[in-house]
Amino acid sequence: MSKITIPVRKFDAVIVGAGGAGLRAAIQLSEAGLKTAVLSKVFPTRSHTVAAQGGVSASLGNSEEDHWHWHMYDTVKGSDWLGDQDAIEYMCRKAPEAVVELEHFGMPFDRTDEGKIYQRPFGGHMSNFGEKPVRRACAAADRTGHAMLHALYQRNVRANTQFFVEWMALDLIRDAEGQVLGVIALEMETGDVVAFHAKATIFATGGAGRIYYSSTNAFINTGDGLGMAARAGIALEDMEFWQFHPTGVAGAGVLITEGVRGEGGILRNSDNERFMERYAPNAKDLASRDVVSRAMVTEINEGRGCGPHKDFVLLDITHLDPATIMKRLPGIREISIQFAGIDPIKAPIPVVPTCHYQMGGIPTNYHGQAVNPDGSTIKGFYAAGECACASVHGANRLGTNSLLDLLVFGKSSGDSVIEAINADPKGLKELPADFADRTLARLNRLNTQKGGASVNETRLEMQRTMQKHCGVFRFKDMLVEGVSKICDIEKAVHLTEIGDKSQTWNTARVEALELDNLIEVAKSTMVSAEARKESRGAHVRDDAPDTAANPNGRDDEVWLKHSLWHREGNRLSYKPVNLKPLSVETIALKTRAY
Amino acid sequence: MEAGAELNRLRWRCTRRAMLEMDILLGSFLDKHYAGLTPEQAAVFVALADMEDLELWPLITGKRECENSLQAEVVAMLRNVKVK
Ligand SMILES: Cc1cc2nc3c(=O)[nH]c(=O)nc-3n(C[C@H](O)[C@H](O)[C@H](O)COP(=O)(O)OP(=O)(O)OC[C@H]3O[C@@H](n4cnc5c(N)ncnc54)[C@H](O)[C@@H]3O)c2cc1C
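ok -> structure tokens follow
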């Protein structure tokens, strides 16, 4: 029996995360009359979903003919066939309904002259199974994510969702049978540690891009949901797949949109050469994200990077008419001045490929239920959004499919919870006696640690290691060495020391706890990447090149399978990709070429 | 609330924002300039940090006008903070 107890609050459901996915799930639950708690590290409308500008995809066909089946085809192809085709069909079929629903919640979409939702073209969106570009992205000016979050939040306020703001969930509560019974969380303002005991727990904690040194993700993206799941014995799926954006500002990571190259921006190396002409003679600087990113890394690796450390390339728009820059790319000028100290009208912007989006995560089915390696569901546990792996993005996400993922699987996870609670009207299952022990031991360790490592330095070391050993272009020896380095860094993480031992607003403690989560994500990424000996989507290895037998280095014979990383024993297992859609024929394996 | 806790709360609200741009900018400002502000300027900064990113960014880039000269003064300092 455990000696220490903590306060327990009881709910029908607890949702961790108040971004797009968490808020969409919460609407389902609260409107169904369930007593729902939503925990967030920040005020809901400060969640990272705000940063999404490009839009959300749905085959509404408002501007020209479109079909969910074409959207599905693009998504499977984009995923390099690693996405599960049942989940992809589900998402693409539900997309029009999800977007129209959002409109009814008050989302101010841009409109056509006839008052329909306006749709614009976006990379990878094609009609008629890859034939020609189609307008499928719905947006609210350049503030789609912001508008979406506000619409969802208002709807939740109306439905009486109970928010716990500036609370950090620390661990999942799981009993001996593996059922999830809620979370343990820390209230930052008081330092109180409280159990949220619930019939259902939904994770919607977002991404973990801060494992990399150069990342477009805000500081909040520390992968807490993944860390908590891993510590609770839940395997993480496809963690080797991270999408990199070719143009993040060197040093800061801040995103420079693709639109800059669309308007005529050119990438140059230290010889002032337009090097993309060599890598992609036709598309040049407008080739797809992964092609451009790899070319940039090759230039840097071969010594043609710029700057004192030769570690970036230049994005040049100095040849464009300043009036065009001011008119078409105003935000970019401001960002370069602010974060690179450079006015792009006068000088080129230093850029590097930058970590942008996590394709892997907590394994779920398309109902938003978390699943065991054998496909059976984990009772009481659900996940949606960037922290989940349904898997619709497979080895590479298609732009605008992420916001769609939040809406569709946010809702389906909510519906699954309602169904489960209705089917089992019994009260809450009892908490095991020792449910808080592990968490309290972790907190106690932090409070008493002497002579340990600094949180900031250890985090930086981890980020540099990930960037160098497991970046956009991967090398066998570097990966092997990376695994051993990350394991060393993990040891330091378990010995971090903080100076501040206070209760109220102890941000040093919170950052140390975030690092506990980051390291699980970093380790699962490095280990999964080292093991996957092929190139697929965003995972590209130097020793798995493009050959006649394995175009693009993809090896379907051996590697058409999902990775599952198990924290216990630091081991991997694999499970098959679901190539069987719900109602249509399988989208057969093909070489991914654009 | 104690001064240390107050500052930590401000630190959290400056460095756990919706957009990376704002994490970097407000975080750097807090480290480099906050301690040197007058109480009036500090109060304005706290209010700015409480704004949403998409309200604050247009102030910083000059797309939206500041409410008064004191706010303009702090926004100008924020705009000029060296993040590199
Ligand atoms: C710069 C940028 C631009 C993008 N543009 C697009 C785009 O145009 N289209 C598109 O489809 N996708 C885009 N994406 C991707 C997309 O924005 C994200 O994948 C998506 O918004 C993630 O939403 P989410 O609900 O899963 O998580 P988030 O919105 O990140 O929310 C996570 C929530 O979890 C909470 N949380 C996390 N950990 C804890 C914890 N321990 N305790 C309590 N609460 C916790 C946070 O407080 C937050 O409320 C973009 C991403 C970036 C970085």
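The two ends of chain A are 61 Å apart (CA to CA).
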